[in-house]
Amino acid sequence: MRAALLAIDGCTVRTNLAHKRDANHADVAGWFxxxxxxxxxxxxxxxxxxxxxxxxxxxxxxxEVKTAHGKLTKDQRDLFAVWxxxxxxxxxxxxxxxxxxxxx
Length: 104
Fold this sequence. Notes:
This protein has 104 residues and is α+β, with helices and mostly antiparallel strands. Helices cover 28% and strands 29% of the residues. A hairpin with a 2-residue loop joins strand 4 (52-56) and strand 5. The chain is globular. The N and C termini lie far apart (41 Å).
C-alpha cells in the first residue's frame, strides 16, 4: 500500500490510506488556490469524507470533487445524509468561482 499525502499550502501529512481521486481533482484544487483560497486535501481520509476543505474569506467549506458525470459513492451519500453542515459538490471552474463568490 502506498502512503498518501494530505497537503495544505506547502505543508504535507503522510497517511497510509489508499484512495482514488476523480480525474479533475488537481484542477479543482488548483482553481481554488488561484482564487486565493486555502486548500487542504482530505481525499485520503475515506469513509465518504469530502475531498477538500477550502478556506475563503474567513469561512471553511467541505468540498466533494466529481467529474461532470461522476456519482456520489454509497459512503458519501450516507455521510451527506447525516452531516448537519453543507457539503458542496463541484466539477468545474465555474462551480469553484460560484462557491468563492457566494462565500460570506
